[in-house]
Amino acid sequence: MVQEQPRPSRSRDLFDRACKTIPSGVNSPVRYFEPHPVFITRSQGAYIWDVDGNRLTDLCCGYGALLLGHRRQEIISAVSEQLLRGTLYCSPTSEETDLAELITGNFPSMDKVRLVNTGSEATMTAIRLARGFTKRRKIIKFEGGYHGAHDSVLVSAGSGQAHHGISTSEGGLEEVSQNTLVARYNDPSGLEETIRQDGDVAGVIIEPVMANMGLILPQDGFLQQVRRITQKNDIPLIFDEVVTGFRVSPGGAQQHYGVKPDITTLAKALGGGFAIAAVGGRREIMDNLTPGGRVYQASTFAGNPVAVSAAISSVRTINRIKDQIYPHLELQCAGLSRAVADLASDMGIDAQINHLSSMMQIFFTSEPVTDYDSAKRSDAARFGRLFAELLKNGVFVAPSQFEVVFLSSAHSGEDLDHVLDAYRLALGAIRD
């Protein structure tokens, strides 16, 4: 039986202190929730501990980065060994090539790879590559898809037939946002119409599985149609696999769904908890990067030896245990999803649960959630109450309705029994 834990007390004091020197008290807005975020002091395996010593079963998992759980021994050992050799060289290492070869081995669509630091940096580079390669300006993204915090993709659908994007952030330049067109996910005819209305499209960027408006799965054949449409119109297709790369399968969503994009971005599970990302794709596209080409990209910390050592260990570990980890996680996630759905149904709560591989999310709505509009119609306020109740009962999920629950290889059957008990108590508390 789950025992309700007291609300952390020191977190309130630490948050008040943080607000004096950190804008809004957090270094990423997704970490904030009312009345204040929980401050964490350590982690191990499937758990995190807050500053008051409460142990929480972690279903946020670094927003998907921790496929192998916290402090996986192989990764910690590789990083520890690298720390003794150095932390930053700003000159090539053979390990960078080792990692590039591992990535291209797992992702055959990527002939060449450039290592960067973050998913945002990877998508920014991918878009610049598409523009440099095609000599066109416009990018198409899908409503609700998140591709980082840079101006080209920090847009939402505007009004009017052309689906031109409008910036979702103050400080975003209108002239940049207007070069981003917005289509609707799971609507191939809408994508075709958007392309038909504008002949200056340099690339289409898509999360093959939407993981930033809750979890939204592609309907049967949708990704294949997107690939056909982009090929017919000679437009590079960019798969943003920052979340799904290595998490859905060893070769990401493109392996799972059998679709080969022109450019791919990776991050999160690539580094197993360390900051590293990658952009890769067809040779003739990637060769446009400087210094050999004229598409500029550079970074002091790209290929950082510590992060590279973590990524090498992460990918090698995933590849070694892939025949066990993916089927096991899929069974765990499907079982948990069914059980939570049954609980909601028994309590008379309208709920939809989308799940795939080791990812799931609950939406409080009676209608299937297949795109941004249907996701936005779910009861986000009720989800916020669910989050708070889960936290009281020792389970930490991402605070927002529009994030995802992630499982890791560190979660045991006993952990998931605890999680299910927490959902039972939480759903019971919010049924009215």
Describe it.
It is a single chain. The chain has 432 residues and is of the alpha/beta class. The chain has 2 domains: 10-71 and 322-429, Aspartate Aminotransferase, domain 1, CATH 3.90.1150; 73-317, Type I PLP-dependent aspartate aminotransferase-like (Major domain) (Aspartate Aminotransferase, domain 2, 3-Layer(aba) Sandwich). It has helices spanning 10-19, 73-85, 94-106, 119-134, 174-177, 188-197, 222-232, 252-257, 283-286, 305-346, 372-376, 380-392, 413-429; strands at 40-44, 47-50, 55-58, 112-116, 138-142, 155-157, 165-167, 180-183, 201-206, 237-241, 263-266, 277-281, 352-356, 359-363, 395-396, 405-406. Strands 4-12-11-10-9-5-8 form a 7-stranded mixed sheet, sandwiched between helices. Strands 1-2-3-15 form a 4-stranded mixed sheet. Strands 13-14-16 form a 3-stranded antiparallel sheet, with helices on one face. Helix 2 (73-85) packs antiparallel against helix 10 (305-346). The protein is globular. Mean pLDDT is 94; it is low at 158-163.
